[in-house]
Amino acid sequence: xxxxxxxxxxxxxxxxxxxxxxxxxxxxxxxxxxxxxxxxxxxxxxxxxxxxxxxxxxxxxxxxxxxxx
Length: 69
Fold this sequence. Notes:
The protein is mainly beta. It has strands spanning about 5-15, 20-25, 30-35, 50-55, 60-65.
């Protein structure tokens, strides 16, 4: 899959999980496990709004691209 096939969406961090993972929730209530990009060391806290990238075939996992503005 190319980067162009990725789905991007804003989400709110709902919970901090072990090993650098977060539970994120979209505006429609869908929850997923999100991890930051490699080398991204910015910690997130519950309530932070972030930009996520999903693979079209698996909407249960996402990458955190950046804090949303």
